[in-house]
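3.2 Worked example (two chains)
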Amino acid sequence: MSSEASSSGLSLEGVNDVEDFLWENEEESMSWERFSHLYDLMQMGNKAFRANRFEEAINCYSKAYNIKPNDPVILRNRCTAYIRICQFLVQRQSSESENRPLSGLDPTIHAGLALKDAEKLMNLRSTSLASYILKADALILLEKFEQAHDVILSGLQVDPLSTPLQNLAMRTASTMGRRSHGITSRSDDFDCTLCLKLLYEPLTTPCGHSFCRSCLFQAMDRCNRCPLCRTVLFISPRTCSVSVTLNNIIQRNFPVEYAERKLENDSLTNMGVNLIPLFVMDVVLPCQKLQLNIFESRYRLMVRRIMEGNRRMGMVITDPTTGLVADLACEVEITECEPLPDGRFFLEVESRRRFRILNHWDQDGYRVAEIEWVQDVCPAEETREKAELLELTNKAAAYARSWLKASQAAARGDQMRLSQLFKAEGLMPSTRDPERFSFWLTTLTNRRPVERLNVLRMRDTNERLRYAVFFMQAEEEGWRVR
């Protein structure tokens, strides 16, 4: 959903509470036991809603609806819960998602379900203001502002003095005004209805609508439906080609604006040497190789942009001592990228070099950082300190080779650990680069995230080599005890 929907979702009406289900609603056609179960479900649903446990509330209301279909109180309460969970997802900050990612929850789906319940409620209670308010709320969350405005005007005919409907009328009118303000004198036939800018790398869907390639797939990260007509789309970046004819028409007729759009798009995929997108997950050290499963929509967008650029991103952890993004991180390069049918990406990455984060901000839901590259303070060539460092590195390398053989023998019953050790052995760098070798040495033992972050912050290669050897020796003592 766009920023317009997000801002609209912050101030909807009529969703602060649900309606109580009364004993007076008991029907003679229903047994006492069945009605008692229905009443208990509604009580549990209302209690969960008021405690902001909206998924639990929806589950209770749905069970109640199966017992008594088309009950207006059940429909109203479930519709309200759908809208509230949609609001929660739209308003959720990227920092919250980094600490506790959610999978499988889509605001567009919940808004669509809310709209269905609101329409059923309107058929049952055509003079109820709540049905007009809830239907307008659902349409606003679906970014159908014109339709929402029409529903609001119909509700005001029922009660011209309704404050909630008057508030919604002002908001939808304001949003529609902002949209129309950005349209240029040329025909909007060449505008993307998602970003409201000139189409760039246009794709035409099977249902006949055209969008910017990046805009369409950003929308499809949340729901695999056409953003305009809601038709289910079975397309992916690998199988969908840019509409060459439409693209040529746009380039020929609007060359200046097209050049601006190209520059804007290039800035998202090729950020420059001092800017890098961040994947907030864990501490990664140079000389590591790992696999990632990318399922969050904001990171799927980030990966697509990275793959169109230099295939590199930063991996960083939230510092447990401060609760903020750590000051140091590591650059990783995507060596393999497999898009999966459900929109996820399966990645293989190799860590490269570390950097310090000078500043960071949100861009389309993920973080981007301004950085400076960090290296150890190394002794000058042809000095005694340099010779001692190389000697220490060679001794550490000899110990590492014997340690790996002993470690592999000790891990014969643990296939996962054995695989890790074989992989690490294949990544062993040359001792002619002591800094890189010292990082590789620290990856051989399993260290806690805080310890790995401390390793990343070290600027003394000698200290890092000794640190790594100390923990290798401690692990070797553990084998002997066992």
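3.2.1 Second chain
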Amino acid sequence: MKRRFWGILTTKAQPFSKWWQEFRAEVAVIPMEDPLDPIVFVDDRVLTVRTGYHNRRNAILVPLMMVYSFFSILALNDLLPDFESKQEFAHEMLEYVEQQRALANPSYRTDDIERRYKALLDENGEVTWSTYLRAKELEGQLESLMDDFLFLCFFLLPNISMWVIFFLKPRDAEVYFDRQRKIVYSWRHGRVGAAYFDKMGLIENQVGINLVLQFENKKQKGYHPMAIVGIDTGKLTFHTEADTTYPLAQILAFMDHGKSAVITGPSFKRKPAKFFWRVDPKPDNFEQRVNAALEAEGDFVHQYQTRWVKGHAI
């Protein structure tokens, strides 16, 4: 089976139904006790799949977060001065200058030392950020200090962003395939998306399976196609058509024949991904909003076939 698999730059979708006959003819789905990732739940009515965000989070985000944290701490340690020790040393050097002058034996550097360390102290004899920067400017090292600050920002700003994502990004809601109603639905950060199964869009690329549903706009005053990105097949990335074929065939088999085509038991439920602080909460008035998204179908299929489909990976 040869489907449109253009890679990560694929921007437009095709209806999954376009390949149904080929899936039915060419792919044999075997019922299993564990139907494998990304399937999470199966019963008489519903099959659900999860995105691979938890895998990308643990294999990419967390290691990068640790690396950036380490270098941020090193850069911050080099940048932040010890004001107390600098203040103590400045007073010692000014006393040294006074002693040299009292002995009538000042060196050619005495005036320079006095100027530098007086610049480091304020009127109360203390070192502050203002006096520290003034002294650095006098020494001609202010530009080097700014370079160190930019180096810190290079690590610190991405690191803060990654920590914010780690703590605030919830576990993705699963994608629900309702066999009785022949619909697909899910939600992302308060926005509901749904489509009839035969109208659902599909993009396959290196990050896995990307399903296109009709999603609410941010203020729930309209709808547009949006992709649920990165439904993986047990591997992190570099998916091929061979990797995504069987999970798609399982979904189609369930919608055609029910749970007996996919699992051997009465139902199946996979343990949820660990180490998330919260899950994406189910929106209020959910059933009514699913129905509204289905009724607003309009030219949904034409839109995702002809326009760039935005995804929701984070």
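3.3 Remarks
The mean pLDDT is 86.
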